[in-house]
């Protein structure tokens, strides 16, 4: 009887402890849910804000709104403070867009709506539509650059330096020149026709000095092709191919 009573008491205690644990967990979960729904003050654009707008001029261009804390990024702005007073918007801010501190940059790094990353320079290359993925490459795209050139002495991988010659007795080679470049802008040399034709455009990319030298030299001695990179694109530098190795000969 004593053993039976002990077992009954133990079972009751376990049940109480289990219930208490469930209660505390649910209460904690409710607290987390409530915290996630707490309203916080954020700034949104009342109208379109052009690129290059000074931070100290934003007061009349933004308004405060309440949003759930769980849906607001950590760098969201709740007020126009002195930290952005000397900065400018790095790109256009759409009406109703949430303002974050990542939208601002030093005024000196902005040129006609282009924000040049720190330590880099902007280089422009003229292209046809077929040299920039059929016109799919736009501002913000990540690209790889391939160079097709005439080979010096008809062999090896050294550019001859006289442009792309297509005479049958000459040998040409295509190699990866650069990859992972950020496109700062794509500007049509002529506005697209009403039928939607995509033609010539100049592509501006952000590069370090050494890559700028390669890009400019490649443009002067061969023909460049911009390839649009996806999130899982696999690009590996190598010797490329030439007329002799095109079909694995």
UniProtKB/TrEMBL annotation:
Residues 115-228 form the Flp pilus assembly protein RcpC/CpaB domain. This is Flp pilus assembly protein RcpC/CpaB domain-containing protein. Pfam families: RcpC. InterPro entries: Pilus_assmbl_Flp-typ_CpaB (IPR017592), RcpC_dom (IPR031571).
